[in-house]
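Subject: Sanity check before I submit

Could someone independently write out the structure tokens for this chain? I want to compare against mine line by line before I put it in a report. The sequence has 182 residues.
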Amino acid sequence: MARIVPVVATETPGQFLTGALWNAGVKAPADFLMGSGSNGAPRFKGYASTSQSIASGTTDTPITLDSEDYDSDNGHSPTVNSSRYTIQVAGTYAISGTLAIAPSATGNRKLGININGVNARGGVAQGSGIATNSWCQSVYTEQFCNVGDYIELVCWQSSGGALTTSATTGFGPMLTVHWITG
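---
Independent answer below. Compare away.
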């Protein structure tokens, strides 16, 4: 069941502050903003612990995220649709991703954030290949999402052959999704 953001209660002059009013109007919103686990604002950080082969072409390839640092609302499965984080609480989210791909001087690379399979506004970075070092990139956007929307980190490359992503701690594929406002 999807959670909703608690609303700060408005009170009328002369109304007594009861424990129930305090809990509903002050404690619940504070727990949501500062709490932990399923009591806090929704947050997710997933990453790939293994490399992934990215075929040459200009079609977005969703990046598989087989591990998690945290997932407060169980919006991600490391085994089923593991490239997706599915929104459980509507609101505006800060979304970021990082990826490194093997060196190749040929062609271009693209890293992006997709919402429901479509590039998110401002969530795309593209550049030419690099011969001697991995192509590393980060992307960030803020986006309003409804319950059931899904977010993916995607990549394409046009080197003419398959290239693999890095699975190291500092450069491996990583996606974070943090609720910032309702």
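---
OP: Matches mine. For the report I'm noting this point. The longest strand covers residues 91-101.
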